[in-house]
Amino acid sequence: MSEQKRLILMSCCAPCSCGAIKQLKDGEIANIEDFIVMFFNPNIFPETEYQKRLSEQIKYCEKLGVKYVIGDYNHDDWREQVKGLESEPERGARCSKCFAYRFCYAAKYAKEHGFNAIASVFGVSRHKDQNQVDISAKESCGEIIYLPIKWNENLRSQINHESDFYRQKYCGCEFSIRK
Ligand code: SF4
Whose CA is nearest to atom 4 of ligand 1? Predict the structure, then answer.
């Protein structure tokens, strides 16, 4: 029998994570004993935008009765991490750094709080490269197991269709705001 996982699901927003959270809540993913949603997104700019996405995330988790944790919001620190990569395109080196930074934070939290696995929805948007997310995660999670779960895209679309989520028009950082 596979080892049971205590999982941290990293989320960037409710529209991207709704399907994954529902699947986990409904026990559709094998060998997950327990899970928590982590919202650690210091990449999001400006802070008003961050608060909107956070509020939608909390509303959805509470609607489903799912546990969540909110990471620190320090955008200046995030800017330091991606220094020199500001003009990289989306899917480029800045995004790898951004993913790695967030996965490292989650791995540290996992170690400190008895979780042994991490998954994310960072790659579900059509603007993202799932392979890039997976590579960043594997390089950053250390002894915590990274699970590259393929989420049910139809379920995510269906929940989005039925919900009135606030929907942002860009990934998160100031460099991803489309003109
Ligand atoms: S575009 Fe998105 S993933 Fe890339 S650096 Fe900005 S916030 Fe991070």
Answer: 95
Domain range annotation of the chain: 5-176
SS3 6: strand
Secondary structure percentages of the chain, helix, strand, coil, to 5:
45, 15, 40
What CATH homologous superfamily does 5-176 map to? HUPs (3.40.50.620)
Q: What is the pLDDT of residues 7-53, one digit of tens each?
A: 999 999 999 999 999 999 999 999 999 999 999 999 999 999 999 99
Q: Give yes or no for residue 120 CB within 6 A of ligand 1.
A: no
Ligand 1: which of 16, 43, 170 to mutate, judged by most atoms within 8 Å of the beta carbon? 43
C-beta separation of 117 from 145 below 8 A? yes
Q: What is the largest CA-CA distance in the chain?
A: 51
